[in-house]
């Protein structure tokens, strides 16, 4: 085109950790060039679930198992409270079986209510223990988890996907109960929950 530089594309991309990067493609006398880019190339996944570039902060980890003298202890992370709760369920499952090797042949819809976030987390995780104890259900994935305010507190809905325990699965632990001991829910650059369970 004549008459100087012309903006041909300008779009704002959303990425984790509230990072916003404006990318503009200019045509300079028929020779494209990139402007307003950071010092390294950015790569965005189709689902915007993570971002990578040389030297950038890595994608958010789901959870971290912490050392504990007798019981099980873990932290789970999420960009939202719902994501942190879902990752807490996977963290607890990892203390008993390898949830990544569990299929999605069986589904259970759960709905729990509580007076606050801490009680809601305990009730949610306790439902997974109950399903394992009564139906031999192994959690493999948490879908559609929603937390909503109600007049008397909070409610949680989620679809749990997994399989029934069989010879194809290997157990390496037994979580008996979720406790309130050292239970934490913190909001800072996303959400972090900390849970201690009886084993």
List its salient traits:
199 residues; alpha+beta; Archease, Possible Chaperone, Chain: A, domain 1; 2 domains; 5-stranded antiparallel β-sheet; 3-stranded antiparallel β-sheet; 2 helices; 17% helix; globular
What does this structure look like?
With about 200 residues, this protein is α+β, with helices and mostly antiparallel strands. The chain folds into two domains: about 5-50, no CATH class; about 65-199, Archease, Possible Chaperone, Chain: A, domain 1, CATH 3.55.10. The chain has helices spanning about 80-95, 115-135; strands at about 5-15, 20-30, 30-35, 45, 50, 65, 70-80, 105-115, 135-150, 155-165, 175-180, 185, 190-199. Strands 6, 7, 11, 12 and 13 form a five-stranded antiparallel beta sheet that branches. A three-stranded antiparallel beta sheet has the order 1-2-3, with no helix packed on it. A hairpin with a 6-residue loop joins strand 4 and strand 5. Helix 1 packs parallel to helix 2 (about 115-135). The radius of gyration is 22 Å and the shape is globular. The N and C termini lie far apart (about 70 Å).
What is the count of helical runs?
Answer: 2
Helix content: 10-25%
Q: Rounded to an integer, what's the Rg over CA atoms?
A: 22 Å
What structural class results from the helix and strand content? alpha+beta
What amount of the residues lies in strands?
A: 35-45%
Q: What low-confidence regions span 5 or more consecutive residues with pLDDT below 50?
A: 4-57
